[in-house]
Design a protein that fits this description.
single chain; 141 residues; flat
Length: 141
Amino acid sequence: MLSGLQDEQRELDQFLANSDLSYSKIDGLIATKAAAASVPYIQPYYVSPGQNDREEILIDRYDESMDLLLGKLTNVSNYVANLSGEYKEHKFGSWVFSGPKTYVLTIRPPQSTIIEIERSSSLINDMLASVSESARALQKG
């Protein structure tokens, strides 16, 4: 299925490259602002920000106006958590600014048929491996 999606693959690769640039700029800026404000900047295994008083900010890319926004978010935070994900060595940026009000800043992830096909393939392979492992356990037991 993936062999017929070369154009979409090129678009996805370009989107991911642009996303990587935005991630690097934003992450560096957040780390600098957190250090300047003596706000802990962490990369936790998991954070579950409460739904009450939570504001989600979804952006397409970094631009110069983000400097002021990130400074304001950092200054009202008890800590900043980098919850960014990864896809084939590309970062999907997401940060939680925890304080009296929680803010979640996320770089918009790509919507791509290629990613959906790969995700589906991975799920099917995991299910088949689980079935195979269960069958082996039954044969032993």
